[in-house]
Design a protein that fits this description.
The complex is a heterodimer of chains A (293) and B (305). Chain A is built from 13 helices and no strands. With 293 residues, chain A is an all-alpha fold. Chain A has two domains: 68 residues; 220 residues, MetI-like fold. Chain B has two domains: 47 residues, no CATH class; 240 residues, MetI-like (MetI-like fold, Orthogonal Bundle), CATH 1.10.3720.10. The chains are: A mainly alpha (293), B mainly alpha (305).
């Protein structure tokens, strides 16, 4: 009887490991399918960016063409101010990311370290407005920018990044886990002023969080189309997403398609390169800020 | 006595809390709160332009809201937005649950899971307008997708399928792009949630002889409910903001027959034609909807489950 049941257990165990193998196989097949589904489009994009317009009109191939350099030089010497676009996007995204992370850390520090009267009210308020989209105040924003004579200026696209509720929330979460109040108290005993304590002692501790949020803030600003399109009208000041939209609204059939693909590749390549270099930190950072800790 | 002394010292530091809040509060007031108030204010005026003639501003009370709610456009564009959101969201949720449960399953031990996570998250970082432009070229009449379908004999080369001129294929492309851009993000969120579940529950289930399917439905899913609600509402708020993809794909027309025109595209149209009264009323309606959804997110993320 005892023998029988132990044999039964043995069989069960084999069944379970066999089941796991089958499930693992299915999992790999499905994961590879989604990997291809994600990369396929970029593969076509980069292949097509290397082909001539006439070759593109004849159909599709999986082998790169030899026209990449020509497409590139046509694009650079064409009517699209792409270097301006790249420069403008870099300035706006870079400064927004820097301001957004630094001042979100400042704001989170205020909530984390000091115990003042309006602290909880402020924290609750920021959490409540966190998911209200900026588009719903776009009308008032555009009117304000016009009245301040800041149209065709980068300031209204950079300064508002200082008040970034989601970045603030991430920083607060990070401080809860990585910034014990004793460090601040020790600095005070050593005679360090509050601002100096923050800049020289707290900021280095926050480095990992700042790095992750810098990337996210940079990418969000880099990809933003809605607001810059309302503010920037001069060709020289336009960012890459506006130029892409312009490419679409032009009579595109007259276009050299090789050049169109090259332009798309040009505008997404910086983010792809940064992502491939830093993906480990980015993927880890996604879940941390968004769900309760 | 000592306690008292310590307390007063703390208070003297605490004024720094307010000082550190100044940048955020000032910027928020100037660039978010003032625009919100003036948006609401504009919604009560008749102010638009016909050619070079400016009409208004005239105070017209709630007439903009009446127009907005009765002319039928709002219903059409809300429906479009929700339909395209659902086309993307349902597969996104199913795929994310599946992949998330595989990534978090310690017995399955998926090799290269870091690689897979990196790849499926990649589309989320790609400029939505560039992605939409890419899909526009890929799905154009003589584009690579039709060429591929023709080469495997699924399409007659004489009559290429016009993807963007049929309601459901146009909406489908928008929904698919939303799915592609967001399923990696949702997978990672759900995976993090699943890894937060007490492993002893899974062990107990295993001892009781539950199989993987039962464990998923009876343990993982119920315990994941708060995160699922969070994902659902934040995705819905994101869906209401849908703009870049359909705007670029349809060049702002929302064709065919305005069937892919979203709420924010509608707002954008009013902003560009300088119809500030209607833009204001629409903004206020969107503010109320997203405000309610934001409160729900707040409730979900702060509740002790």
């Amino acid at each position: 009887m005892a023998n029988n049941s132990s044999m039964q257990l043995q069989v069960d165990k084999e069944k379970v490991t066999g089941g796991i193998k089958a499930r693992r196989f299915v999992a790999y097949v499905v994961l590879i399918f989604f990997t291809i589904l994600c990369l396929f489009w970029f593969y076509i994009l980069f292949i097509n960016a290397t082909r001539t317009n006439s070759a593109l009109k004849q159909g599709f191939t999986l082998i790169p063409g030899g026209n990449a350099w020509n497409n590139w030089s046509n694009l650079v010497h064409g009517t699209m101010p792409i270097w301006n676009g790249l420069f403008n996007s870099f300035i706006i995204a870079g400064l927004s990311a820097a301001l957004s992370t630094y001042f979100s850390a400042v704001t989170a520090y205020a909530i984390h370290v000091y115990n003042f009267k309006l602290r909880n009210i402020f924290f609750t308020f920021v959490l409540m407005i966190m998911t209200i989209p900026t588009q719903v105040t776009a009308l008032g924003f555009v009117r304000l920018v016009t009245n301040m004579k800041l149209e065709d200026n980068f300031i209204p696209l950079i300064i508002p990044a200082i008040a970034a509720p989601t970045v603030f929330f991430y920083m607060k979460q990070y401080m809860d886990s990585a910034l014990p109040i004793e460090i601040v108290e020790a600095a005070r005993i050593d005679g360090s002023g509050e601002i100096r304590t923050f800049n020289q002692i707290v900021l280095p501790i926050l480095k990992p969080a700042i790095a992750v949020q810098m990337i996210f803030a940079f990418v969000a600003s880099w990809n933003n189309y809605f607001t810059p399109a309302l503010i920037l009208h001069k060709d020289k000041l336009k960012t890459l997403p506006i130029l892409i939209a312009q490419l679409r609204s032009a009579d595109w059939l007259k276009f050299d398609m090789g050049q169109v693909y090259m332009m798309i590749a040009f505008s997404i390549l910086p983010v792809i390169v940064v992502y491939l270099l830093l993906s480990r930190f980015i993927v880890q950072g996604i879940a941390l800020g968004s769900v309760k800790g | 006595m000592k306690q008292q002394h310590k307390k007063s010292k703390v208070v003297s530091f605490n004024k720094w809390g307010y000082i550190f809040l100044i940048p955020f509060v000032v910027v928020y007031l100037v660039f978010s709160f003032v625009p919100l108030v003036s948006t609401i204010y504009y919604s009560f005026f008749e102010k638009y332009r016909v050619g070079v003639i400016e009409v208004g501003p005239n105070w017209i009370w709630f007439d903009n809201y009446k127009t907005l709610l009765t002319n039928g456009d709002l219903i059409t564009y809300t429906t479009n937005t929700l339909v395209m959101w659902i086309i993307g969201f349902i597969p996104q949720l199913l795929v994310s649950l599946l992949l998330g449960s595989w990534f978090s399953d310690t017995r399955l031990r998926i090799k290269g899971s870091a690689f897979f996570k990196t790849v499926i998250y990649l589309p989320n970082l790609i400029m939505a307008s560039a992605f939409a432009m890419l899909f526009f070229t890929l799905f154009s009449d003589g584009g690579p997708i039709n060429a591929m379908l023709q080469s495997i004999g699924l399409q007659n080369p004489e009559v290429p399928y016009k993807w963007l001129q049929h309601v459901w294929s146009a909406r489908g492309i928008v929904g698919f792009l939303n799915f592609l851009m967001w399923f990696g993000n949702t997978t990672i969120l759900l995976m993090a949630g699943m890894m937060g579940i007490d492993p002893s529950l899974f062990e107990a289930a295993e001892v009781d002889g539950a199989n993987a399917t039962q464990v998923f439905w009876k343990i993982t899913l119920p315990l994941l409910r708060p995160i699922l609600v969070f994902v659902l509402i934040t995705s819905l708020v994101g869906g209401i903001q849908m703009f870049d993809v359909p705007q670029i794909l349809t060049n702002g027309t929302g064709d065919p027959m305005r069937s892919s025109m979203t709420l924010i595209m509608y707002l954008n149209k009013h902003l560009f034609s300088k119809n500030y009264g209607m833009a204001g009323a629409l903004s206020v309606v969107l503010f109320i909807i997203t405000g309610i959804l934001s409160l729900l997110v707040y409730k979900v993320s702060t509740s002790k489950d």
